[in-house]
Design a protein that fits this description.
Length: 184
């Protein structure tokens, strides 16, 4: 699937499949080096982080475990409500574990800031964040992020796990939507 398959819904491609792949390879290299000799637990945040988790994890040379949480702050809209709900909690006890939260995007920062404090109360040896995308100018709270793929402008983006009203997650690239998609 490429941009032309999107018909008129897509405004432009922000990050191509190749750019994403190259950056994830670099991030995996840093993570491999930083966590060498440690037992790492990757925590993916459903649903948006599915693609990042799958592609980042496959580039790591460390023996990792993977677990998932589902939290929601957006519902079907395009701005964060600020109210974070746990829809599915971890199956893993974090006591003494090195935890790396894997996310698709940090926008207002409200979701990750909340999640970071929540996981830090669970006795982990360390809790860090890896995110593919971050919107620095949209931050409502500052979040201490260890690994960032790309800083992007304050525009609503879709693809590579990111949705608008649950659609577009399966695009292999990250793009912006044409305004008519929001108003129709
Ligand atoms: O920094 P914030 O403004 O809090 O936004 C970031 C969060 O919003 C999105 O999740 P969403 O709640 O849309 O759930 P989803 O992953 O299932 O789409 C995204 O995947 C992040 O988790
Ligand atoms: O720009 C975005 N796109 C899709 N989902 C999101 N969740 C937070 N920001 C975004
Ligand atoms: Mg969403």
């Amino acid at each position: 699937m490429d941009a032309s398959d999107m018909g008129t819904d897509l405004e432009r491609v922000l990050l191509s499949e190749q750019q994403i792949a190259d950056r994830l390879t670099e991030m995996a290299g840093e993570i491999d080096a930083d966590y060498a000799g440690r037992d790492l637990l990757l925590v993916g945040v459903l649903k948006g982080a599915v693609m990042v988790m799958a592609d980042l994890a496959r580039r790591l040379h460390l023996p990792v475990e993977m677990d998932w949480m589902a939290v929601s702050s957006y519902g079907a809209g395009t701005s964060s409500s600020g109210v974070v709900r746990i829809l599915k909690d971890l199956d893993t006890d974090l006591t003494g574990r090195h935890v790396l939260i894997v996310e698709d995007i940090i926008d207002s920062g409200l979701t990750l800031s909340w999640l970071l404090s929540n996981l830090r109360t669970r006795g982990a040896a360390s809790v860090e964040i890896a995110t593919l995308l971050r919107k620095p100018e949209a931050a409502k709270v500052e979040v201490d992020v260890r690994y960032v793929g790309f800083d992007i402008p304050t525009e609503f983006v879709v693809g590579y796990g990111l949705d608008y009203a649950e659609k577009y997650r399966n695009l292999p690239f990250v793009g912006t939507l044409a305004p008519h998609v929001y108003s129709d």
